[in-house]
Specification:
This protein has about 280 residues and is an all-alpha fold. The protein is about 70% helix and about 0% strand.
Length: about 280
């Protein structure tokens, strides 16, 4: 689905959800509150309507949302955005050269490493493994650059997926909630599923599908009284994926379902956050 189509879908859905709370007999102040809700909801829709990429950079936006203006938030968002662009380009395989995308990744990683290679940001000052994490990431970036330069684009894309599944490690010491830990784990599992499918590893894909089914069960109670459309669709997609993997269906069909599943989980994530940030709006 194109980004514009996803944006329209999110905005329409959230706008209708917001209108439920706006009643004609409500006071002017209440109506103003509802208007503010709608505006914020539409802003959230823009964030969560980004393309479903190899890298879940919308998750990084979420994890940096508490302090979006901090230097660390800016730097890691730039890095994941550039890594996303390279991953998408490599997966599309529409060019013979990806030097432009690779250069941006190297530049944003250089900025990150200059600031945080050995010293974590204040939010992660208690992370004893920070230096090991950045060193591991640096090695991965070096391998990706080597593979791209050697025009081993499929292998480079696979390494990007592997790296993306580990991006959440930079937030382990941030004191993120159990809810956001679930988001991180689910994002990593979805990326690992994509990687297994692209590598034609049916056993690993089947295993990750079961893991994601478990993630979905943890999502359901967080949706509370909200409609179950998203979780129902996710459940159906997981069942279809499991059957298609068992039947060793062709990659385009499998990848299409996996990408749709990623989108549905992003939508559920946005709904959970709206409930968390605006708990009184359903009363």
């Amino acid at each position: 689905m194109l980004a514009a189509e996803r944006l329209k879908m999110h905005i329409t859905h959230l706008y209708k959800s917001a209108l439920i709370f706006v009643k004609p007999e409500a006071s002017a102040s209440r109506q103003h509150s509802m208007l503010a809700y709608i505006i914020i909801a539409l802003c959230l829709a823009i964030i969560f309507a980004l393309p479903a990429p190899a890298c879940d950079d919308t998750l990084v936006m979420l994890l940096t949302a508490q302090n979006p203006g901090s230097e660390f938030s800016r730097v890691i968002r730039n890095f994941t955005t550039d890594l996303t662009a390279l991953g998408l380009a490599l997966k599309a395989m529409e060019k013979t050269d990806y030097e432009g995308e690779l250069t941006k990744v190297m530049e944003s990683w250089l900025e990150f490493s200059k600031k945080y290679m050995t010293s974590p940001p204040p939010e992660a000052r208690n992370d004893l493994r920070w230096a090991a994490k950045t060193s591991e990431t640096a090695r991965s970036i070096g391998e990706i650059r080597k593979l791209v330069n050697e025009k081993r684009f499929t292998d480079a894309h696979d390494r990007i997926l592997e790296l993306n599944s580990k991006i959440g490690m930079f937030f382990e010491a941030f004191g993120v909630s159990d809810e956001k830990q679930l988001f991180i784990a689910t994002s990593a599992n979805l990326t690992s599923l994509e990687r297994a499918l692209l590598n034609n590893d049916h056993a690993a894909a089947a295993s990750m599908t079961r893991e994601i089914a478990g993630n979905l069960e943890s999502f359901r109670p967080l949706l509370k009284g909200d409609d179950s459309t998203g979780s129902d669709e996710a459940g159906k997609l997981i069942e279809e994926l499991a059957a298609a993997i068992a039947a060793e269906a062709n990659l385009p069909a499998l990848d299409s379902k996996q990408q749709r599943l990623k989108i549905v989980f992003e939508e559920m994530r946005s709904r959970i956050l709206l409930q968390e940030w605006f708990p009184g709006l359903k009363n």
